Structure formats: structure tokens, C-alpha cells
Amino acid sequence: MKMILNPPRDRWQQIIQRPQFRQDNLEETVTEVFNAVKEKGNQALIDYTLLFDNKKMNSLAVSRSEIENSANRIPEKLKKAINLAKANIQHFHKAQKADKKRIETTSGVVCWQESRPIEKIGFYIPGGNAPLFSTVLMLGIPAIIAGCSNIVMCTPPGKNGKIPPEILYAASLLNINNIFAVGGIQAIAAMTYGTESIPGVYKIFGPGNQYVTAAKQMALRLGVAIDLPAGPSELMVLAGKPAYPAFIAADLLSQAEHGPDSQIVCIAGHKSLLIAVEQELKTQLTALPEPIRAVAAKALSNSMLIRLGLKQDRMDFINAYAPEHLIITDKNASFYIKNLLNAGSVFIGNYTPESAGDYASGTNHTLPTNGYARSYSGLNLDAFIKKITFQKISKQGLANIGPAVEIMARAEGLPAHSNAVRIRLNGF
Amino acid sequence: MKMILNPPRDRWQQIIQRPQFRQDNLEETVTEVFNAVKEKGNQALIDYTLLFDNKKMNSLAVSRSEIENSANRIPEKLKKAINLAKANIQHFHKAQKADKKRIETTSGVVCWQESRPIEKIGFYIPGGNAPLFSTVLMLGIPAIIAGCSNIVMCTPPGKNGKIPPEILYAASLLNINNIFAVGGIQAIAAMTYGTESIPGVYKIFGPGNQYVTAAKQMALRLGVAIDLPAGPSELMVLAGKPAYPAFIAADLLSQAEHGPDSQIVCIAGHKSLLIAVEQELKTQLTALPEPIRAVAAKALSNSMLIRLGLKQDRMDFINAYAPEHLIITDKNASFYIKNLLNAGSVFIGNYTPESAGDYASGTNHTLPTNGYARSYSGLNLDAFIKKITFQKISKQGLANIGPAVEIMARAEGLPAHSNAVRIRLNGF
Question: Of A311, B125, B131, B152, which alpha carbon lies 20 to 30 A from A261's?
Fold first, then answer.
């Protein structure tokens, strides 16, 4: 771990830089796969699944019976845990529904917003060593609350070409039945163009590796919306009194195990606390099983322990970094909450580990990384809806605002805009 | 105008296609300008302003005195009109502020969202034949309500290298003082990278021609957020009884005058109404002054009058098209409002011309075109803020949800996530 003591402000810009992604060399592959999927549809998906995933698939769609049987294939305790998480995520996201407010801006001029679900959406659930069923909950629950009715889910085939039952179980809880065993660039291309089996969608959600990320950028250029630009996951801990180095080290390691490119930063006012955290990290790291230990060790080698003696400096550095996850253990948390500008999700106090938010506190775990918290929100109900504006103007209302419209339209060189008012008010 | 009678559903996909943009041939120019601005800063801006706009600029920043003097250079009537528009837009956008709701998802687990303004934003206000000061209001008012404090505005120099006083006046009403006389690709590049004079920003807002649109796509790839993907403006009118062909024709022409690529569609249940609208269009078109008349005539040549005899077909066609602006004159507007899924902004009744929403009803005129209303909202307060999630868990709260977190984390192959809970609950 790098220990950085009192870095001057002119070094901050360099310190907060995340490693650059090299997306350029992916472009060619992404373009090739997208073109093949556009031309050959399902056959291209089957071909690339053999090429990239080394899985020979006869069909991509997961059968209804396989989805329904998933409940019998996972432990009762895990089902109960998933149900608790589901309830909390539902509770929190339901509260994000906005009331419809009708506003009479001028007498006779009534304006309002109404929310509508995005009709067709697609989820990408990554594969890999473990089934990321929590992501199904984090994408699916707000989508269902928003009213999205056409949901497609793609996830790479696992062992034996099958999708893990945990993922299918989480999907079944949300009545998501349109599931396909296809991953990578080809899955994103399928949801972009549509194939004989997989419907094209208007917006694609979900995390993924650099191939999936590059493919989502391509989808965006082709007119399909995406949830968030992606990057490796991040955790910043602001360690202030009362701080328990063992807790902080456990949180930092929970981030480090995500991958060797995980970004981890611990900030404190006192060097002694940072040294204690570092010591705990060493101890706890050795207790982790391989291969997780090696992954976490690699992530820690890029991570930073930073001393900033002044409270305001700590605050400004957090805002400059814009962390995806921020833990605040300081008893003066309210100062930091009040002045916080840029972060994805915040965990307050010594009993709020980041992993609680990953699964079950109720907040969403799909969050802006790589400094994008400066301009993007984490996933919430807004991501699944559009807000349409409405206005209804009475004849008297138009008489009230019409003359202003006419004057402004003519000043902008748009006489027909003015005429559309005048023709209605003539003789009124 | 094309009259299309009862198109079968299998032709809809073709009918709703907007003309393709050719962005490919712009890429090279955009890349070149971005690289030059990154390397040479202000000097590149001055060079490209001479090359593209044929204006020799010594300085780009607009002086405070020029901004303040703008009020003396425009008619009192226009100032009053702008003030009325400002009040209505403020009224409507202020109502979009969300209350903070604290949710206890499980006993001892409290979660909430807080909104924060995007710290640094940039506005692009197009130049051209007329000063589009209304766009300053539509971008600036929600930004100020959201609390955005660092606003940069770029707009191409007009006659004599000066920015029109109407634009400066609108900006001065909102205390936007960081204004630069630079337009086109180079302006977007400047707000992306920052130069000696122009600060880099986190998000860029505002309309523009195909060069500006391509430049905003480049900014997006470089990590700067943008408001909306852009395309030519659109109006769809659903003409139902009571319908006044003269009003409808005036609305269609107000859209047609925006540019030769404006998209205009009128839908009705009866051919006779479409014929009456067409006749009115011819009459009103001849009354428009040149060069507006030629522009509108060109736009009309691409536009469509469509008869669909069934109410449900009309509804489904509107949703398939996903218009930027939708006027509904039908007395049964509530059916269409209820079933509407995709549109930017909706104008209800015979006294609600689209031009009212462009200027003064209070709704925003920055809206999704080109079918993007299927997945994007028009500009509203959300576009200027991020919603940060917070959670605070008590020791008992962690005991309540911790076991579920541990089970789920282990099932996802993330033991350190489980440890972060266990270490806090040991001995509890």
C-alpha cells in the first residue's frame, strides 16, 4: 500500500487519476461481432459462444421449467436471504416514486410531469466464477416498480452450458422469464439489434468486463441507452474517531477481493490510524482463501492510505476523487454529509459495512465508478422511466402568455411560431 | 406532403424511420479539432474561429460590462416577455424538487437519497441567423434551481464578433457571467478539456448542428456527460374532433420553419380532416416571409399526413413513433394521455400550441428527438443533479440483516464481503 502524507493540492489531480482503460484495441472485435449478429442473428450468437466461451449451445433460451425448478436447487437459507434483500430493495426503491404535481404557472396554463416505464429493457448479468444473482435483484426490482413489462436477460452459460440456479431463482422472484444463455459482446449486440429469439431493447443495464463495457458503448452509439459508463469498483474510507482499524481493514479487503483493478483509498487525519489499518490489512489478508488472497493482494498494491490533517482538506479530497462507495466512520459524519458533492453511495458509522449495501440494506449497488459520480447518479427508479411533460392551456391562458410567446418567437426569427399563437387569439 | 391512408402495421417500422445522420465523415474533423484544443488551448479556439466562422477574435471571454449593458440594448417589451417566461419556467422546474425521505428498510437500517448539483456544467447556445436566448432560459433556470454554481456558456460570435444582447440579457438574469464567444466543435472541445480561459466541465448541455452533435458524442466518449443525443426537431399532431385545420396547419408550419430536416406528422381518423389541413398549409405557407417559406416548404415535402381509422391504431402509432412534441386536439385526450408511453412533451387541446412550450408555458423545450423519447426524458431538474444514496445501520440493524449479507456474499464467492459483517457481529 502506498502511504501518502499530506499531499499538497497541486498533486491531487494526479493522485485521483484511475488507471486508463485501453478500449481502442477492443473496437475492432466489437465491430466485427456486432456486424455478425446484425447479419446472422442467433447463428452468430451460437458461433461466438463456441469461440469465446468454448460452449456448444443448441438453443439460447432458458426454458420456463428450468427457471421454475431453480427454487429446488438452492439452499433454503439462501432463498430466505434473497427474500430479505428483495424486501429491503423494494422498500427503498418504491419510496422513489414521485407524486404527480399539477402546476398552474400562469392562470389558465397548467403543466405537469408524468412518468412512463421504458417499454423494452435488457439486463446483462456477468458470468465468471460465481453467480452474481444480487445484480438481478438490483436491476430487476426498480424495473418492476417502474412498470417495465418487457425485460430481457442475458448471462453467459456456466458449467454444462447452464445458467446457475441462483440467478434463475432471483429472476423467477421478479417474473423475469425471457432469459438467454449468452454473454459478452454478442449478448449486447443481440439486445441492440434483436435476433430471431432475443428482442432488441431501448436500454441496456448491467455490469461487465472490458468487452461488455466496450460493447455497451457501441450500443450507445447505435441509439440504445445504457445505464452507466463502467469501470473497476472503488471504495474510499474516511477513517475518523471512533475508528476500529479491524473493521476498516475488513471493508477495504471486501473491495479488494472484487478484482486486481479494484480502487481502494483510506483517508485519515492521523498517521497512527493509517498504520494500524495497514497492520490489520496484513493480518486479515493472510486469513483469506486463495485465489481471493492473491486478487486482494494485487488490488492492495495499487491502493492508497492518505493522511490529510485538516478536515476541510479531507472533505475536498473526497469530492475531488468522487468515490463510488464512501464509508464515513467519523463521529462528525454530519459535516461530511453536508459538504459532500460527489459520491455514489455513502455508509455511515462503524456498523455500516459497504457489503451491506451490496446486498441487503435496500440501496442500489449499481453505482458510478471512475469519477463518474461527479455527473451521474447510481441506479435508481429514474433510470427505468421517462418523465413526459404535459401542458393544457385554456383560451384565456393563451391570451395571458401568448403575447410574450409572439414577441420572443419573432426575436428569434421564427414568425410561424408567432403565427400559431396569433391565429388562435385573433378576434379574442 | 405525403398522404398515407391506413398503413398496415408491418409498414409502420419503415414509416417511423427518421433520416439517418451521416456522422462518420465528421469524426476526422472532430478528432482533429479536439486534439488541437487539447494541445494549444485558447490559440486553437482563436484559429478555428477564424477558419470556420471567419471571425478574427482577440479575446474569447465576454466582459462583465458587456453582459450588464445588454439590458440597455433590447426593447422593453422583449425584456418583459423574457421575464414572464422566466417566471413560468422557474415555477414549473422548482416543483420538481424531491423531498428527502428516510426509509427504515429493516429495523435499525435507515436509507435515504440526497440530491447534489453537478458542480461544473457547460452550456452550448447555437448561433446562426437569430439569437436563441430561450435556450439560455431552458438550460439555466433548472441549473440554478438545482444549485449548479459553476456554469460556463459558449456561443459563436455573431456580427462584429459580438454575442447578441438578447443572449447576454437572458444569461444576466440568471447571473451566468462566464460567457465565451466561441462556437462549434472547438467550443465543445474547450469545455471538455478546459483551456487557459475556459474551464473544463463535467456535463455539457445544449443543442447544435451536426458538428456540435458529433463533438458532444466525442465529449461523451472522453468521460464528459451530455444532456441528450440530438436530432432534428419533430412535431406530431393527433387531430381529432374538435379540430381546427387552420390551428393545426399553423402548428405544423411552426415546426417546419425550424429547418429543412424538421420532422412533421399529422394523424387523424378522417381523410377529410387531413385534406383540410393540407389545404390550410398551402394557404398559410404562402403568407410566410422568405427565406422561412423555402425552409418550411422543404420540411413539408418530407412530412406525412396519416389516416388511421382506429383509435387504438392511432395510439400505437404515436407510441411507435415516439415524437419529441405531440399535440392532441381530440376531445378524448384522456384516452391518449393514459396510454401514451413515448413522447417528449405533450400539448393538449386547441389552445395549446407547441410554440407555447418552446417559450413560456413553463415546461422545458430541450426534448428527445429521433425516437429517443422511448428511453430518454426531456431536460428536467434531474439532469442537473446526482442522487447520492446514504445508509446508516445500527449494531442491532446489522445483526438483523448481516446474516443474509453473509450468506449471499459467500454464495457469490466473496468471502471478504462476508467477513466485513462477521467481524462487527462477533460476540454480539
Answer: A311
Cell of B218: 466525442
Question: Are residues A157 and A240 part of one domain?
Answer: no
Q: Is A324 a catalytic residue?
A: yes
Task: Answer yes or no: do A133 and B412 touch at CB < 8 A.
Answer: yes
Contacts of A347 in chain B (CB under 8 A): 391-393
ipTM score assigned to the predicted complex: 0.96
Q: Are B56 and B201 within one domain?
A: yes
Task: Describe the strand order of the beta sheet including A325-328 as a list of residue ranges.
Answer: A2-5, A304-307, A263-268, A234-239, A325-328, A345-348, B385-393, B109-117, B103-106
- The active-site residue out of B93, B258, B325, B365 is B325
pLDDT band at A314 (very low <50, low <70, confident <90, very high): very high
The reply to whether A75 and A141 lie within a common domain is: yes
Same domain for B210 and B237, yes or no, is no
Per-residue pLDDT tens over the stretch A45-100 = 999 999 999 999 999 999 999 999 999 999 999 999 999 999 999 999 999 998 88
Do A167 and A307 fall within a single domain? no
Cell output for A126: 456477468
Q: Is residue B216 located within the same domain as residue B265?
A: no
CA distances to A91, A113, A344, A381, A384 from A146, in Å: 13, 15, 21, 6, 6
Residue A420 falls inside a structural domain: yes
Residue range B158-167: mean pLDDT, rounded: 91
- Whether B270 is catalytic is no
In-domain check, residue B17: no
Q: Which residues of chain B have a CB within 8 Å of the CB of A388? A: 340, 343-346, 373, 377-378
Interface of A with B in 90-149 (CB under 8 A): 91-92, 95-96, 98, 101, 103, 105-106, 109, 111, 113-114, 116-120, 129-134
Confidence of residue B428 (pLDDT cuts 50, 70, 90): low
Mutation target to probe the B interface, by most B beta carbons within 10 A, among A73, A266, A417 is A417
* Angle, CA B392 vertex, CA B146 and CA A97 arms, to 5°: 45
Question: Which candidate from A254, A415, A421 shows the least CB-CB separation from B288?
Answer: A415
Domain containing B298 — which CATH number?
A: 3.40.50.1980
**Residue B410 distance to chain A (closest CA, Å):** 9
Check if A35 contacts B (Cβ < 8 Å): no
The reply to whether residue A391 touches residue B348, judged by beta carbons under 8 angstroms, is yes
Nearest to B120 by CA among A370, A341, A324: A341
> How far from chain centre, in Å, is Cα B23?
20
Mark whether B218 and B237 lie in a shared domain: no
| Active-site residue, selected from the candidate residues B166, B324, B354, B406 | B324
pLDDT at residue A25 in the model:
73
Domain count, chain B: 3
Domain span including residue A110: 26-226
Are A204 and A246 part of one and the same domain? no
* Domain-located, residue A2: no
Which of A184, A206, A226 corresponds to the end of one domain? A226
A78, A105, A110, best to mutate vs chain B, most B CBs in 10 Å: A105
Q: Is residue B10 part of a domain?
A: no
What is the CA A291 to chain-centroid distance, rounded?
A: 26
